[in-house]
Amino acid sequence: GTHWRFSQEKILDNGIKTETGTFDVIEKIEQLSTESKNGKVTIVAHSMGGLVSRYYIKNLGGSNKVDKLIMIGTPNHGIYGYIALGCESLLGNLGIGRGTYSPECEDMQNDSQFIINLNSGDETPGNVKYYTIAGSCDNNGEDYHDEVVRVGSVQLDGAVNEIVEGNCIPGTGTFHSAMLNYNHVPEAYNKLISYI
Q1: Which end of the chain has fewer CB atoms < 10 Å from its terminal CB, N or C?
Q2: How far apart, in whole angstroms, are the C-alpha atoms of residue 7 and residue 62?
Q3: How many other CB atoms sit within 10 Å of the CB of residue 37?
Q4: Whole-angstrom Cα distance, residue 134 to residue 151?
Q5: Could you list the pLDDT tens digit for every one of the 196 residues in the chain?
């Protein structure tokens, strides 16, 4: 997954600071691609990680290093409604927000310049195979969603787009996060494995 505390560009430019140093995303992709049989990697990304991956492919030469991009619950067309309005509060509740301003929340707004630029032209550029897995729980109305991201926001023109359905998660959990857990949403895992 991707770290929520930076804008997408900053993650790719500066890496992700960890307890043991800095993890350079682009450097790691380049290293893994040289070790790969076909010179490319498969990226599996959740949520904002898919936006970071798409930015890398579209703007930083990643189409030459990525064979497949598999995105789970990625807000490819942005976040909407109460999630957009309360993004910083949501992050604060998760213990990772910073207060009143978050570049990642700003970038993920459905009308942000980042989202507009990312989706301009071909939504699935390069010779990369794109897959999306969107979640929908409890038949939750015309804007089906995974309690965080709308199904329509996940899907991309030119990608293999799938929807997994299930029960919304009571309490503070979300179907959005549960899609990463085989025990909660095995269908998401099975689709992921079928793409690899």
Answers
A1: C
A2: 18
A3: 5
A4: 5
A5: 444 445 555 555 566 656 676 667 788 888 999 999 999 999 999 998 999 999 999 999 999 999 999 999 999 999 887 777 777 665 555 544 455 556 777 888 899 999 999 999 999 999 999 999 999 987 665 578 888 899 999 999 999 999 999 888 887 788 999 999 999 899 999 999 999 9
Q: How far apart are CA 31 and CA 40, in angstroms?
A: 10
Residue 25 buriedness (CB in 10 A; 0-12 / 13-18 / 19+): buried
